[in-house]
Design a protein that fits this description.
The chain has 176 residues and is an alpha+beta fold. The protein contains 6 helices and 5 strands. Helices cover 53% and strands 18% of the residues.
């Protein structure tokens, strides 16, 4: 029979109150227990003396007989130097699961692709600037068509220039 020193919940709904009990590990949380060792009231302030009380002699007796405290009870008992308790450290628990790691990897790849595209776009206008200057004097030359196919921005600029000239010609005809 495996003995546990654990908390058994009592109290009303949303008003917890716990008994510190010795029980068989197979019995239900709030079910049959062997002996009541103390109480714990989490609703009281931490500095209140009535928040936690237990019989140290009986706890020592059950610890000597092989009863194992749960983590929460071990924390309480370590404050009274009855057992040694250390905060657990499970770094694996904090790691993202498989799907989250896959999403992070995809987001990182997309970010790198965007950075590479931005770098390529930054390098491309520096190379196309002389082509745009050469295409400006000869508006209907085949060079302009090639430059327009390479850079949509250059195409939009080339379309705006003839449209402005046509608008200016229409105004002259209307005035004259």
């Amino acid at each position: 029979m495996a003995l546990k020193i654990r908390l058994a919940r009592a109290g009303a709904k949303k008003r917890p109150f716990y008994r510190i009990v010795v029980a068989d590990s197979r019995s239900p949380r709030d079910g049959r227990f062997i002996e009541k060792l103390g109480i714990y009231n989490p609703l009281l302030p931490k500095d209140n003396d009535n928040r936690l009380s237990f019989d140290s002699e009986r706890v020592k007796h059950w610890l000597d007989r092989g009863a194992q405290p749960t983590d929460r009870v071990a924390r309480f008992l370590s404050a009274a130097d009855l057992v040694s308790w250390q905060h657990g450290n499970n770094p694996e628990k904090a790691k993202p699961k498989a799907k989250a790691q896959e999403r992070l990897r995809e987001a990182e790849e997309a970010k790198q692709a965007a950075a590479e595209a931005a770098a390529a776009a930054a390098a491309a206008p520096a190379e196309e600037a002389p082509a745009e200057e050469a295409a400006a004097p000869a508006e209907e030359a085949p060079v302009e068509e090639a430059a327009a196919e390479e850079a949509p921005a250059a195409e939009a600029a080339a379309e705006e220039a003839p449209a402005e000239e046509a608008a200016a010609e229409e105004e002259e005809k209307a005035e004259g």
